[in-house]
Amino acid sequence: MQNRKNIVSAKSTKMVLDELQPIQGRLGFWTLLNCRTGRYLHSRVNPEAEAEQWVAAQGEGDGKKPRRIAIYGFGLGYHVAAAARFCPGVAISVFDLDYRPFDLSMQLNLLLPSSVSVYTGERAEAALLQWLDKYTEADAFWVHRPSLDLLQDRHVRVRQILEGLLSLRQSYQRFGAQMWENWLQNEPYRNGDLALSDYLTRVGNPTAVVVLGTGPSLDPAIPYINRWREKALVLAAGSALKPLIRHGKRSDAVVISDPQHYVLQQVDVGDQPSLPPLLYLPTVHPAVLQAYGGERFVVAQDGMDYVADWAKSRGEVPVLTGGSVLTLALGVALRTKARKVLFAGADFAYTHGRRHAAHSHNYDWDATIPIGESRTVEANDGGFAVTTQALDTFRLFVEGAIRRNPEVTFFNTGTGAKIEGAKWLPFDQVENELSA
């Protein structure tokens, strides 16, 4: 039945159809024609069957229920109703900045499941961001692609968020089989190595943590790192290992998350007298663990059932990963309960035409932004930075983590993309801030 208490609509007056035309098919089902694009929001023949196929394709119809489901795009609600049938008992939130399809569904008396909350119009953006602030890998976020065509030009930020989430989801689907295979092969490592809780006990309660990415802003930060280590815990992405070694610097740990074999290049550093501890996900490639010459600590990631079950058996609490090594390092940093977190080399952009710091293993081949993927965002220095959909998605995850942790003060360095909620701090002022 319709659950009107769960409806937050920005407009209740008579709908103005504009370019949307309701059409009833020969089986009696209604759909909407987007006259501007010439595409239908739902099948003209059997939108209910189409909706069931759409939900099944999201990957949640295999018996594993997500904690929560968010859907962007209500349309006439066929796919929303199908989601409620596939995932009974799961709270579903639907967001749509265009109020018209939802209002039409109400006029047509189409049913809305009681487990569904709907947010439409301009209020939908704030509700969407609030939902994403609590988003973890245990949740599901689905995008009804035909509804994206209804977004207006002024909604560029929402479009970027949605496209980024789609890209991140595709990445998880692409590497899911590889991660499972790595997990199986890593059994002796993950059961024999120490855990994140052991590492956190060792480092105690640092007042500050420096998270080192491998963006171009790492280069000017490197001369300061040894002095920063005197006042803060320094966690580095695995791809920063070679640049640090080349300059005679060291972090307090190296973090690796990617399941692919090529990550071996990040730790292939020859004979080194001492390497920092490695914090790794149990789904990384086993060749990385075999090759690393330092101590290893396994970090369970959130959102994967088989990892969560294993972590529970060891008394470990999974960490949010955010889909990148830097966001995983941030998750570890927050587990230390430090009062301050500082980013260096976290450009999330092509700073001075480069995506990575010098001497990192992929420095030479990543200077060119993939065609059609560039976008412009605000930079730390007040100008603009060129970035990509993927990098922007990771930055948005960091911004969400900042909002979820108001008790922590965040700082950002360099001239990359601005991270909302992180105060910009020049390199030569970092040491004073860490001492304060």
From TrEMBL:
InterPro entries: MptE-like. Residues 205-352 form the 6-hydroxymethylpterin diphosphokinase MptE-like domain. It holds the Pfam family MptE-like. PANTHER family: 6-HYDROXYMETHYLPTERIN DIPHOSPHOKINASE MPTE-LIKE DOMAIN-CONTAINING PROTEIN, MOTILITY ACCESSORY FACTOR MAF. This is DUF115 domain-containing protein.
